[in-house]
Amino acid sequence: QEKSSCLSAALFGEDCEISRDQLYELLKFAALGKCHNAAQPSWCRIYRQSRLAGVVVIVLPEMSQLHFYKFYLQFKHLRKVFRHRFTLTPSANFLASLYGEGANPKPQNTARGILLGLTSTASKSSDLQRDPIFQKYGGKKRGLTSYILTSKEMNKYDYPIKGSTRWKGYVCTGCDKQRTDSSPLFGLDCEMCLTAKGNEVAYVSLVDARGQCLLNELVKPQGEVVNYRTSFSGITEEMLLPVKTSLSDIQTRLKKILPRDAVLVGHSLNNDLQALEMIHSSVIDTSLLFARRGSRRYKLKFLAKAVLGKEIQCEEMVGHDPAEDARTALELAQFFIEQGPAKVAELNLEMLLRAENLAEVSKKKDALQPQGCRVQQQLNEPPHLSKPCFLECLQVTGQKPLLLGRQELDSSGLCQSNLSTSNKQILQKALEDVPLSTFSIIQFSLGPENISSHLLAELCEKVGSKLTDMLTIYAGPFEESFCLKSVKKKFGKCGPIQSLTVVTETYQPYVCIQYEVLEAAQLAVESLNGAEVAGSCIKVQRRVTAAMLDCDVLIKELELDVENEGVIYVAGLKQSITEEDLQEEFSQLKDLEMLFLPKDLQSGKHRNCCFLKFQKSQSAVDALEVINGWTMKGSKLRSRNALASGHLWRWIWQMNHSNGKQRGNILYKKMQQLPDSEQDLKKKVEKLDNHIQKLYRSLQNNTLCVVLFPGVN
């Protein structure tokens, strides 16, 4: 959406969908003009590009088209200001594609290229100094005592501490001797089961500095087991049946094994010590040792592969092997101490993690395709030619791109240059810095807790159910011997019918009709309620549910949506009519800009309805009066204001023709017991909407502003 009318694009029907490459074309030409072979986008034109004051891309990483329509009413500023909307075709490495990278970029071509775009003096040395490991420990090698958690850190990260009332009853290991850089290291890991008492230890492994197993034993939980967590712990009911070893037995054995100056090493070791109900004053926690910005931590599986080059917790294994995890944590600490923080920082773990995530997404996408398709696709694809990095191109032209976002999100492929911890702080920074930059990418986040598969599935079910209810109307009552064919014919004049069924549970029969487009259902409610159909004076209504109580408000807002401005819906067309016939019939209408005749995406046959777009809103109002009651080739036409833009229409069609409804209903029944965080999500969306409005209002005229809902997959 530009703050002047520089951009024109076709926005109807099939033109509502664009690919990531088409988006890249638009952003590249807007930012660079004719520099670096930047050409006009293939799907739209930017007039007077040299007059553009800047380009601002606002990214909502966890959100997709699903969220836009689920929280349509909450996005009141976004939907009123941004006139052009497109469905973005799904693609892996989406955010990375903003920089012009290939579909499967190599690690050195992604993060490194992005980093080069951030400053004009980027170098290996300055990159290293910005690494959180280097910032925390410096560049010099240190002894192991430098990496032992302090009392303050142990308290902060929830470690059991001697003398605290919270840990009353916990057993001390008795290791009270002064630690030195020669003190022995021991790797410790536990697997837990969920019992009536909470998390209880069920498996303990302890290894020495050479990786030899000193303790590897199952433990009988005290409480009744509620969940064995087999997929993580590897523990089953059968495994614990013969076990007699108690927690106190394990505590006693650990006290005997560990020397008085022992240093325990583990990954998030606080959880293990809590499960063991033990206190140990000297620990090295590898989840904290390999520092990241903020409160995020690397997973042990990732560190094992990135640092040690070994695979652990493999998919073919059932659960984790505590001895393997204890040994891995120990080896990671030893590597860190021996090599020093500078060498570890040079690994560029953030870049490796991004590359791994991108590869994983690509792998999953490939797995969804049949083998033959994958082979054929590879044969058909030309050799990959790497494009210049988007930000690098900007750098060469002397422009300084701005990247702002929450640090939790940089694993998605977008490099962060700001350590803000809240959307409000990001907004404040953006308001200050965006006017100084010609190209800005701003990320606002809902937070990682709002992108779980359970929550997404629940949202998907609710949106699908609500759309279905809005497309469905109930008509009746009818006489027992009514003619269903005449009912179908009458209601079919409002638009294409997806399904029609007779409801017999009532005293007199009713008919349930599900339409393919929202306009048809609304037209039926407005024009046939109280009408005489099949010899009966009937009532036409939608189903009343809690989710449908705001249906009238939603219909009104959809009608007023800027995308539907000057667009009307016309129904009652005969199947034999062609697009040429319609062009001829409607040619007398003033300011008619475009005609769209929807087709069945499977059969290719056109529907008995069409959409007309006018250059002026008043011309659309005038056309409604003319068309209502108009007879075309013996068929009486009905019309009303449009409700669903092109991408919503296609989405509804796909929903109607998918087999996912039954799966969704089953899933929804399971979801009923989940805590409902929807109210909290609504508030967050409203705040995001306000942030976008404030940022948009602050932009200079002639700024191209794009908002992306890339989704999590």
Please tell me about this protein's structure.
The chain has 28 helices and 28 strands. The chain is of the alpha/beta class. The chain is elongated and about 100 Å long. GO terms for molecular function: exonuclease activity; RNA binding. One of its GO terms (cellular component) is nucleus.
Helix run count: 28
Mean pLDDT equals: 81
Q: Structural class of the helices, strands and pairings?
A: alpha/beta
Number of strands: 28
**Could you name the CATH class of the domain at 142-339?**
Alpha Beta
CATH superfamily of the domain at 142-339: Ribonuclease H-like superfamily/Ribonuclease H
Strand content: 15-25%
Shape: elongated
- State the CATH architecture of the domain at 142-339: 2-Layer Sandwich
The quaternary structure here is single chain
- Uncertain residue segments: 2-11, 100-124, 374-387, 407-420, 659-676
N-to-C CA distance: 25 Å
What share of the residues lie within helices? 25-40%
**Topology-level CATH name of the domain at 142-339:** Nucleotidyltransferase, domain 5
Largest sheet: 6 strands, mixed
Whole-angstrom Rg: 31 Å
Layout: helices, strands, pairs:
Elements: E1 7-9, E2 17-18, H1 20-32, E3 44-46, E4 54-59, H2 65-70, H3 76-81, E5 87-88, H4 107-116, H5 124-130, H6 132-137, H7 151-156, E6 171-172, E7 185-195, E8 198-207, E9 213-218, E10 225-227, H8 230-233, H9 237-240, H10 247-257, E11 263-266, H11 269-276, E12 278-279, E13 283-285, H12 286-289, H13 300-308, H14 322-339, H15 341-346, H16 349-367, H17 371-380, H18 390-396, E14 402-404, H19 423-433, E15 439-443, H20 453-471, E16 472-476, H21 484-492, E17 497-503, E18 510-515, H22 518-528, E19 532-533, E20 536-537, E21 539-541, H23 551-560, E22 567-571, H24 579-586, E23 592-596, E24 609-614, H25 617-627, E25 631-632, E26 635-636, E27 638-641, H26 646-656, H27 660-671, H28 678-698, E28 703-708
Helix pairs in contact: 4-16, 13-14, 19-28, 20-27
